[in-house]
């Protein structure tokens, strides 16, 4: 597997149907993206987070050339912490170690920058599978804000998780 920058014209049609229900979409994007995923909206949001935070979008690609994962990453030069956002893998590869391999490659790339001391992300504690996945990778819960997000009649917490560079 390798990581390369996301190319909206080549990759959007591959990733657009990976999330098929509104609740899962909200857990993935915290409603920063419209449901169902729309190319123009994704392009606009990616442009905005690049402008505000320096985010770049990436895809994970198998040795055979298939796009199997997507995420965004930026480094805050004030805190020296990177941040992962919008992490998702193809439904066809879930549960097969692909997400773990993708995140490990993303962390390697992040920590190749000598200024990056840690990488963090936010996950809803109600997304039990995702939270356990990040814990398995080595992320530790830093804090949880209760009732930070509303989805219809549900109130979700927001758990900030962090992994530090091994010295």
From TrEMBL:
InterPro entries: Acyl_CoA_acyltransferase, GNAT_dom. One of its GO terms (molecular function) is acyltransferase activity, transferring groups other than amino-acyl groups. Residues 1-162 form the N-acetyltransferase domain. The keyword Transferase applies. The keyword Transferase applies. Keywords: Transferase. PROSITE patterns: GNAT. Pfam families: Acetyltransf_1. This is Protein N-acetyltransferase, RimJ/RimL family. It comes from Butyrivibrio fibrisolvens DSM 3071.
């Amino acid at each position: 597997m390798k990581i390369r920058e996301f190319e909206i014209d080549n990759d959007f049609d591959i990733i657009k149907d990976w999330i098929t229900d509104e609740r899962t979409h909200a857990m993935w994007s915290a409603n920063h993206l419209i449901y169902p995923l729309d190319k123009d909206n994704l392009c606009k949001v990616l442009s905005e987070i690049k402008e505000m935070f320096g985010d770049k979008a990436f895809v994970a690609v198998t040795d055979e050339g298939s796009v199997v994962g997507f995420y965004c990453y930026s480094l805050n030069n004030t805190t020296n912490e990177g941040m992962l956002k919008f992490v998702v893998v193809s439904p066809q590869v879930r549960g097969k170690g692909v997400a773990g391999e993708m995140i490990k490659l993303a962390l390697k790339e992040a920590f190749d920058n000598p200024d990056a001391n840690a990488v963090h992300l936010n996950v809803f504690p109600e997304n039990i599978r995702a939270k356990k996945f990040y814990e398995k990778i080595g992320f530790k819960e830093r804090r949880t804000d209760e009732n930070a997000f509303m989805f219809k009649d549900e109130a979700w917490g927001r758990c900030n998780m962090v992994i530090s560079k091994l010295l």
